[in-house]
C-alpha cells in the first residue's frame, strides 16, 4: 500500500507539472518522437486548470516579465458585447479588489514601471494578454506584482462610474486607429474569412456598443471567460524558479473553478471553392498593393516529423523571398517590393501567401510577375545551390541562439510561451533546435522542399485583395481580369530559375596593414583606444553582455550638409543607394548569398551631418565585417538596377502625399518649422523625377569615403582584443586617407521660426483631429540640457496622461518629447501631440497649458519625481548591459570630450534630480512667445 501511495503521488506530480516532466533527451532520428520541451522552463497546471510557465533568465538582471494570458478574445463576444473583450482590458487598470482607481498605475510607476512600455495589454480575435515588466531585487515588490495579475484574473471591480469614464478613452482609441488602412482592412475581412464570425467580431468593436452597452454585458463577458481553465501565467526573469512556483501555486490556486462553464467554441472559416477577389480603393490611401492567399487547414506541430515539416516551410519561404528580392532589383523591375511565405493565417487556417507593392503604371505586369515567380518555384522547384545556402543560413541562426543562451532578452522567451499556450507552438530549447537542425538539414533534399507545393497550393481557398488609392488616372484590373490571371498562371510558359552566383570572392587582395601611432587604456570602463597614422581612431570595449556578438559604429562629421543645393536630392540618398549596390563588383544580391551562413552585416549611411558605418558580426566573422567595411570605402559598386528600384520606391513614397491627412499635416509642419528650407521639407515627386541622379549620387559617395581621415570606429562586444587590434590595423589602418584634409559638417542655414504661429489644416473624412503643440528656441547646448529636456517631456507626459486621458477621457494617448541639438545651431524643441474629437480641441489644449503652468510654478511633485528617478535608474541599469548603449555613450563621450568614467556615474546624476530642476526647465523651455500650433480638422467641419 505504501508503494502504491508513492506511485499515486508520483503520478499526481507528473500531472501537476505536466509538460515540465519532459526533457530535451530524445532520439532525433526517430521523427515520431514528441518535440521535447525546453527543460529549463517549468510548466505546470493547477487543480483549477490554470497553466503556468516559469523560467529563470538573467538578461536583464533583477527584472522579470509577467504575463496573464487568456485563451479568449473578441471572437467569443455576444452580439451586445462587440468591443467589450478589449474594453475589459482597459478596465483592468481602473480598479481591482486590491488597488483603487489610479493606485495601481501610481504604485507601479513608483517602481520605475512605465505605462505603455512596461505596463500594457492587448486583445485579438482569440487571445488577451496582460503585460507587466517589474524589478525582482525586492521580494515584496515581486509578490505585489504577482498579486496584480491575480487581481486581473478575477478581481476587476467594474465600477459603473469608471466604466462610463472609460467609454470615452476606448472611443478615442477607435478614433486614433481610424484611417484608410483600417477602412480597407474592415472591407477585406469578410471576403478573406468567407463571411465567417471573424468578420463580425473585430477586436476594436463598434462605437455603439462601446458607448451604450449595458454594464452587465461587460461583467458577463468577464464572468463567462475569465476563468482559470482558459488562463496561463507566464513568468520569466531573474528570480528563483522554485520559490516563484510556490508563490504562483499559493496566489493562483485560489481561483475558483466555474461550475457549468460556457463552452469555449473555436470558430471555423469555411472553404471557398472558387477564388474570392476584393478590389478596395480609398481616396486617402497611398499606392497599390496586392495580397494573394492560398488558405489551408492548419496542422498541429507535435512530433519531430511535424517539426521537420516546419523546417521545410522555412526553407521554401526563405528561398522564394530571395528570388523575389532579385526580381525587385532587376532591370525594369515589375513591382516595387514583394514578399512570400507559409504560415499562420487566422483562426484554424494557415496560408501560402504572396504580397507585393505594385507600380501604378505596371499593376497587371506586377501581379503577373508575382504569380510567375510562384509558378516557377511550384513547377521547377529550387536549385541545390539555393538550398545549401539557405540551410547554412538557418543552421547559423540556430547556432547563434544556442551560443547566446543566457544572454537572450527575457521578452523573447515570453512570446514563445504565449504562442505555446494559445497556438500550441513547440518550445524546445535553443540547444535542441540547433542539434535538430544540424542532424536533419543535411538529410533534406530539393525534392523534399519542392513537394510542399502539393500541400499548400491548390485551386480552392484562394483569396485576393487589392488595396489602392482611389483616383481617376489609375487603371486597376477588374475581378474577372484577376481571375483570368490566376487561371492562366499554371498554363503559361515559364523558364526554370537560373542561379547566377559564380565562384565569387569578396576580397581578392588583402591590403597592407596600417600603423598604430598611439595606444591608450582606460581602466575605469575597460576601454582601449588606438590612433592610426591615416587619421582613423578605434575605440574598443570588450564585453560579455552577449556570448558571441560584436557591434561596430563608425562616424565622422560631414554628411549631405557639405553638398551644394544643386545636388542635394542625390546627395541625401547616396548612402542608401550605394550602400544597397554591393561592393567590389559583387552585387548586393550576391553579397547576401555569399554571407549566408555567417553572422555579419555592414551598412554605410550619409545623414545630414555625418558619414556613418554600422556593423555587427559574430566573433568568427569579425574579419569579414572589417573586410566589408574596407570595401565600402575603396570599392563601392554603381548599380543602375538598384538605383532604378530606389528611385521608383521614392516616387511611390512622395506621390499622392497630398491625399493622406497625416502626410499633409506633417508637410505643413516641416514647411513652417524649417521656414520652407530645401533640406527640411519632404521631397516632391517632381524633385525625385528630375533631380535624383545615379552618377551624382555615386560621385558624392565616393568623394565622402575617398579619405578615412577623421573617422572613429567604436567596437563593443565579445571579442579578443588582440584579434581586433590585428584586424583593425589590417583593414581600417590601411584605408586611404588625405591626412591634411579635415572633414567637418557645414551650416546649411536651417533655422526655426520665432514668435507665435498657428496653422489649421483641413483634410480627411474621419471624424478626428490631430493637435501638435511645439515650443522651440535657442539654448547654450550641453548634454545635460539635452537630458533635462528629455526628462521634462517625460514628466509632462505623466501629467497629461493623468489629465487628458484618465480624468477627461479626451484622448487615447498623448505623445510628448523633448529634444536638443547643437547642429546646425544650438536649438531645442518640446513637442506635444494627441488625436481627439474636433469638438474637444480647445478644452484639451487649455488643459495642456494649465499643466505646463503648474510645472512652471511648482516643478515636479515628490511622487512624480520619484517615478521619474526610478524609471531612469531601472532603464539605465538595463541599458548598461547592452552593447548598443555602450557604443552610443562612448561615441558621445568622444565627440564631446567627456570623461569616460562618467558613463558609470548615472546613479549620482539621476539621484541629484530635484523639483527645482523641473521648475527651472519648464520656465526656460515652455516659452509661450515662441510657440507653434498645428491642428488637423476633418473636411466635415468645413462642410457643416
Provide a descriptive summary of the structure in words.
This protein is α+β, with helices and mostly antiparallel strands and 944 residues long. Helix 4 runs parallel beside helix 9, helix 21 packs parallel to helix 26 and helix 27 packs across helix 28. The longest helix is centred in the middle third of the chain and has 25 residues. The chain is globular, with a radius of gyration of 29 Å.
- Largest sheet, order of strands side by side? 12-13-14-18-15-17-16
By DSSP, the count of extended strands is 23
Q: Largest sheet, described in full?
A: 7 strands, mixed
Report the principal-axis shape: globular
What are the low-pLDDT stretches, counting only 5+ consecutive residues below 50? 1-23
Spell out the CATH superfamily of the largest domain. Metalloenzyme, LuxS/M16 peptidase-like
Oligomer: single chain
List the total number of helices. Answer: 33
How many angstroms separate the termini?
86 Å
Overall mean pLDDT score?
A: 94
The assigned CATH architecture of the largest domain is 2-Layer Sandwich
Rg over C-alpha atoms, rounded to the nearest angstrom: 29 Å
Structural class: alpha+beta
Q: How many domains would you count in the coordinates?
A: 4
- CATH class category name of the largest domain: Alpha Beta
The helix content, as a percent range, equals 40-55%
Tell me the fraction of residues in β-strands, as a range. Answer: 15-25%
CATH topology-level fold name of the largest domain? Cytochrome Bc1 Complex, Chain A, domain 1
Amino acid at each position: 500500500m505504501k508503494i502504491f501511495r508513492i506511485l499515486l503521488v508520483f503520478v499526481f506530480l507528473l500531472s501537476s507539472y505536466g509538460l515540465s516532466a519532459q526533457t530535451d533527451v530524445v532520439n532525433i532520428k526517430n521523427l515520431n518522437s514528441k518535440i521535447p520541451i525546453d527543460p529549463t522552463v517549468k510548466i505546470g497546471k493547477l487543480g483549477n486548470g490554470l497553466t503556468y510557465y516559469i523560467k529563470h533568465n538573467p538578461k536583464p538582471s533583477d527584472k522579470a516579465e509577467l504575463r496573464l494570458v487568456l485563451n479568449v478574445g473578441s471572437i467569443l463576444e455576444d452580439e451586445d458585447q462587440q468591443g467589450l473583450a478589449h474594453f475589459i482590458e482597459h478596465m483592468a487598470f481602473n480598479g481591482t479588489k486590491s488597488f483603487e482607481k489610479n493606485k495601481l498605475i501610481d504604485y507601479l510607476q513608483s517602481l520605475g514601471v512605465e505605462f505603455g512600455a512596461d505596463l500594457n495589454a492587448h486583445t485579438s480575435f482569440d487571445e488577451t494578454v496582460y503585460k507587466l515588466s517589474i524589478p525582482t531585487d525586492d521580494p515584496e515588490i515581486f509578490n505585489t506584482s504577482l498579486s496584480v495579475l491575480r487581481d486581473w484574473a478575477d478581481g476587476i471591480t467594474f465600477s459603473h462610474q469608471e466604466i462610463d469614464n472609460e467609454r470615452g478613452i476606448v472611443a478615442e482609441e477607435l478614433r486614433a486607429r481610424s484611417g484608410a488602412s483600417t477602412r480597407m482592412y474592415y472591407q477585406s475581412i469578410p471576403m478573406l474569412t468567407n463571411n465567417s464570425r471573424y468578420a463580425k467580431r473585430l477586436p476594436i468593436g463598434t462605437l455603439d456598443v462601446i458607448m451604450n452597452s449595458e454594464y452587465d454585458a461587460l461583467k458577463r463577458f468577464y464572468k463567462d471567460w475569465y476563468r482559470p481553465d482558459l488562463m496561463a501565467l507566464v513568468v520569466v526573469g531573474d528570480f528563483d524558479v522554485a520559490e516563484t512556483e510556490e508563490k504562483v501555486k499559493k496566489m493562483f490556486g485560489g481561483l475558483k473553478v466555474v461550475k457549468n462553464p460556457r463552452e469555449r467554441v473555436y470558430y471555423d472559416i469555411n472553404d471557398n471553392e472558387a477564388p474570392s477577389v476584393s478590389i478596395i480603393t480609398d481616396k486617402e490611401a497611398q499606392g497599390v498593393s496586392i495580397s494573394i492567399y492560398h488558405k489551408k487547414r492548419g496542422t498541429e506541430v507535435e512530433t519531430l516529423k511535424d517539426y521537420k515539416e516546419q523546417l521545410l516551410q522555412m526553407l521554401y519561404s526563405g528561398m522564394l523571398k530571395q528570388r523575389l528580392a532579385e526580381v525587385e532589383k532587376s532591370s525594369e523591375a515589375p513591382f516595387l517590393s514583394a514578399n512570400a511565405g507559409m504560415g499562420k493565417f487566422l483562426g484554424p487556417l494557415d496560408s501560402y501567401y504572396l504580397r507585393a507593392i505594385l507600380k501604378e503604371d505596371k499593376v497587371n505586369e506586377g501581379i503577373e510577375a508575382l504569380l510567375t515567380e510562384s509558378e516557377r518555384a511550384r513547377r521547377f522547384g529550387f536549385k541545390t545551390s539555393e538550398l545549401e545556402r539557405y540551410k547554412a543560413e538557418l543552421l547559423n541562426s540556430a547556432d547563434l541562439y544556442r551560443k547566446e543562451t543566457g544572454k537572450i532578452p527575457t521578452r523573447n522567451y515570453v512570446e514563445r510561451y504565449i504562442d505555446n499556450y494559445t497556438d500550441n507552438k513547440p518550445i524546445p530549447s535553443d540547444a535542441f533546435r540547433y542539434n535538430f537542425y544540424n542532424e536533419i538539414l543535411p538529410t533534406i533534399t530539393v525534392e523534399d522542399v519542392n513537394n510542399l507545393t502539393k500541400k499548400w497550393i491548390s485551386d480552392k481557398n484562394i483569396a485576393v485583395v487589392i488595396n489602392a488609392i482611389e483616383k481617376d488616372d489609375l487603371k486597376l484590373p477588374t475581378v474577372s481580369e484577376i481571375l483570368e490571371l490566376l487561371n492562366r498562371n499554371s498554363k503559361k510558359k515559364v523558364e526554370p530559375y537560373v542561379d547566377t552566383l559564380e565562384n565569387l570572392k569578396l576580397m581578392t587582395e588583402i591590403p597592407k596593414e596600417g600603423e598604430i601611432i598611439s595606444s591608450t587604456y582606460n581602466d575605469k570602463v575597460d576601454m582601449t583606444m588606438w590612433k592610426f597614422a591615416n587619421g582613423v581612431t578605434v575605440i574598443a570595449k570588450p564585453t560579455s553582455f552577449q556570448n558571441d556578438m560584436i557591434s561596430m559604429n563608425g562616424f565622422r562629421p560631414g554628411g549631405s550638409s557639405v553638398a551644394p543645393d544643386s545636388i542635394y536630392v542625390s546627395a541625401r540618398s547616396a548612402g542608401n543607394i550605394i550602400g544597397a549596390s554591393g561592393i567590389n563588383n559583387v552585387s548586393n544580391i550576391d553579397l547576401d548569398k555569399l554571407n549566408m551562413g555567417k553572422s555579419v552585416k555592414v551598412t554605410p549611411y550619409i545623414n545630414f551631418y555625418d558619414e556613418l558605418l554600422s556593423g555587427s558580426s559574430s566573433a568568427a566573422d569579425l574579419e569579414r565585417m572589417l573586410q566589408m567595411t574596407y570595401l565600402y570605402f575603396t570599392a563601392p559598386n554603381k548599380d543602375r538596377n538598384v538605383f532604378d528600384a530606389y528611385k521608383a520606391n521614392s516616387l511611390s513614397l512622395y506621390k499622392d502625399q497630398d491625399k493622406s491627412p497625416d502626410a499633409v499635416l506633417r508637410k505643413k509642419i516641416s514647411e513652417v518649422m524649417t521656414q520652407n528650407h530645401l533640406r527640411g521639407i519632404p521631397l516632391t515627386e517632381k524633385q525625385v523625377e528630375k533631380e535624383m541622379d545615379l552618377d551624382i549620387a555615386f560621385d558624392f559617395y565616393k568623394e565622402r569615403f575617398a579619405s578615412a581621415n577623421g573617422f572613429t570606429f567604436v567596437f563593443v562586444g565579445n571579442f579578443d582584443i588582440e584579434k581586433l587590434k590585428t584586424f583593425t590595423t589590417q583593414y581600417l589602418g590601411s584605408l586611404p586617407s588625405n591626412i591634411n584634409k579635415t572633414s567637418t559638417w557645414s551650416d546649411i542655414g536651417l533655422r526655426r521660426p520665432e514668435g507665435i504661429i498657428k496653422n489649421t489644416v483641413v483634410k480627411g473624412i474621419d471624424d478626428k483631429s490631430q493637435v501638435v503643440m511645439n515650443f522651440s528656441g535657442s539654448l547654450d547646448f550641453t548634454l545635460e540640457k539635452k537630458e533635462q529636456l528629455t526628462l521634462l517631456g517625460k514628466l509632462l507626459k505623466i501629467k497629461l496622461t493623468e489629465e487628458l486621458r484618465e480624468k477627461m477621457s479626451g484622448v487615447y494617448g498623448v505623445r510628448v518629447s523633448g529634444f536638443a541639438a547643437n547642429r546646425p545651431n544650438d536649438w531645442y524643441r518640446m513637442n506635444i501631440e494627441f488625436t481627439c474629437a474636433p469638438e474637444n480641441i480647445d478644452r484639451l489644449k487649455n488643459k495642456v497649458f494649465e499643466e505646463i503652468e503648474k510645472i512652471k510654478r511648482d516643478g515636479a511633485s515628490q511622487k512624480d519625481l520619484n517615478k521619474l528617478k526610478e524609471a531612469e535608474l531601472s532603464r539605465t541599469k538595463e541599458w548598461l548591459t547592452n552593447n548598443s548603449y555602450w557604443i552610443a555613450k562612448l561615441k558621445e563621450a568622444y565627440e564631446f570630450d567627456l570623461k569616460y568614467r562618467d558613463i558609470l556615474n548615472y546613479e549620482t546624476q539621476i539621484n541629484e534630480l530635484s523639483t527645482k530642476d523641473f521648475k527651472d526647465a519648464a520656465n526656460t523651455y515652455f516659452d509661450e512667445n515662441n510657440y507653434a500650433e498645428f491642428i488637423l480638422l476633418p473636411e466635415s467641419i468645413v462642410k457643416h
